[in-house]
Design a protein that fits this description.
With 241 residues, the chain is mainly β. It is built from one helix and 16 strands. The longest helix has 5 residues.
Length: 241
């Protein structure tokens, strides 16, 4: 399961539930029991052995232990796990956050750090008013030569990963699925050169993978200063790469 992440700080399931949690492993085995949490980078499960499908032993040194006894505590690395069901419902490995994107001198820092090949889903609504013109996330029919993407629709919601001015800028509009091409912080803005006459904002929902490693270690990666992405520094249109 790619980054299974509810890194289970939220999962402190009572030991006496009548309905067992189910852990599906990548090697085809099924484990039933009680998911106790996520500790030191591993899922912790109290096993109900008579309802589980696994061998008594395995040659894998990481899991080579007798799993035959009911009530035994077992540990599973994220890469061992295909998916997890709690009371019949699959744990989601992503999270959704909503960011208000205004049109101002710098790009809006979403606070979301991405890793290369992360899949993110973005949906936007709302209106930015520039002078007497109402702009939606899909932008206007006109172009703006002074905008970050001169050939894209004026005012369209656009994004970039990293505060590096050489990082490609991509169009988003009202909805788009994106695969991150690099590690870095996600920045958003409206594709317009002028900003002093703008008011209002786009409401942008971003669904992105949780990072179990970070959630288990106090979010160390996010402690660094992500930097500021300025509108005055030219970017690269992803279509020109």
């Amino acid at each position: 399961m790619k980054k299974i992440i509810l890194a289970l700080t939220i999962v402190m399931v009572a030991a006496g539930f009548a309905v067992a949690d189910t852990i599906y492993l990548r090697d085809g085995r099924t484990i039933q029991g009680t998911l106790l949490g996520f500790i030191n980078g591993r899922f912790v499960v109290r096993v109900e052995s008579r309802q589980s499908n696994f061998p008594r032993a395995t040659t894998d040194p990481n899991v080579a232990r007798d799993r035959a006894y009911e009530g035994q505590i077992q540990y599973f690395r994220p890469e061992e796990v295909e998916r997890i069901e709690i009371e019949g419902r699959t744990i989601d490995d992503s999270r959704a956050e909503t960011v208000q994107v205004t049109l101002e001198s710098n790009w809006i820092d979403t606070g979301i750090d991405l890793h290369r090949n992360d899949h993110i889903q973005i949906n936007a609504s709302g209106v930015i008013t520039a002078g007497r013109t109402r702009i939606t996330p899909d932008g206007l029919r006109s172009n703006d030569a002074s905008a970050p993407l001169p050939r894209a629709a004026e005012g369209e919601l656009i994004g970039a990963i990293s505060d590096n001015p050489r990082a490609p800028i991509f169009e988003i509009g009202s909805t788009r699925d994106i695969i991150a091409d690099r590690d870095g912080r996600l920045y958003l803005t409206a594709n317009r050169g002028a900003f002093s006459d703008a008011r209002g904002s786009f409401s942008v929902q971003i669904r992105h993978p949780r990072d179990m490693t970070l959630e288990n270690q106090g979010d160390v990666y996010r402690r660094r200063n992500p930097g500021i992405r300025s509108r005055t520094r030219p970017g690269i249109d992803e279509r020109e790469r």
